[in-house]
Amino acid sequence: MKTKNLLFKLLALLLAFGLVASACGNDDDDDTASGDGGCEETYEVRYANLATFILYFRDLEAGLRDFGAGNCWNFVAADAAYVIEDQVAQIEDFVTQGVDLIIASPGDRQALIPAYEAAAAAGIPMLSTGDSVQEAAPEIGFIGTDWGVEGTKQTEWMVEQLGGSGKIARIGGPGASEYVEKRREGFEHTMENNPGIEVVFNQSANSFTAEEGLRLAQDALTANPDLDGIWADSDALALGAATAVEEAGIAHADILISGTDGEPAVFDQIRAGSGVDMTIALRGYQWGWQTAEVAHQYLTTGSTGQGYFIQAPTFVVDADTIEGMTNADLR
To answer: Hey, CA dihedral for 119, 121, 127, 132, is it positive or negative?
Structure first.
């Protein structure tokens, strides 16, 4: 539903008679993009966000919104708060609106396929970002990364820091998203190749929160007070684990903690040499902007101009690599 902006033409006529100074877009100043020089066409774009309580997804949405504000998008986002049924319903609602394009960060690689298929049946392109469903599903592309590789990076970093021996705990994320499953596969594959590392605790959190990280890290430390490392599926979980270590009276130098996402609080702890030692910055804002560029290419040309998989930026952050970088640089 590419909508010709008739209001713009009317206002342009009024401008010729000196009755208005300038105008463009519709009445929703928050969600409508005007772009420089006015919009002869606007694009109805929707985003099914998985969970805005996770910084990465908040930043991703901000990147989408900021791009849309300069490129004639009428952009609306919905937050599923990590409730998969709600995300399915939100995509289905977007389909009934007859929009131009839907972007989604799917929280379950199987559960959302029917919603994607409904969009395809309605002639509405679906673009995945952050996570995908499956390449065989009707999506025009996936802006992301290989989560198995990212899980391997995090695990290999810990193995190297421990010198190939020690006891570690894994605190996994909830659900069956591609993110959780592939990162777990990367972790397990690396462990199989490093028999000197013993995984003495391996449990999944109920949510990606510091409270869950604290609870599970307390359990892991109670059962294994000589733990050498904690591998967490997100920075929020890692921050909770850091609190558990501090409360247990364990010196920072005696235990490694790693996460992934790119929380500013984690960057601060890495710089200070206290708490979390390593993370993989997902650079959500840059990721969102890149996603928007791909979406806009499709809206204006009918093609992304790229293959199905489009690599997004990630960056391993530890005491060495963070030197000279600000938190804004890593967003």
So the answer is: positive
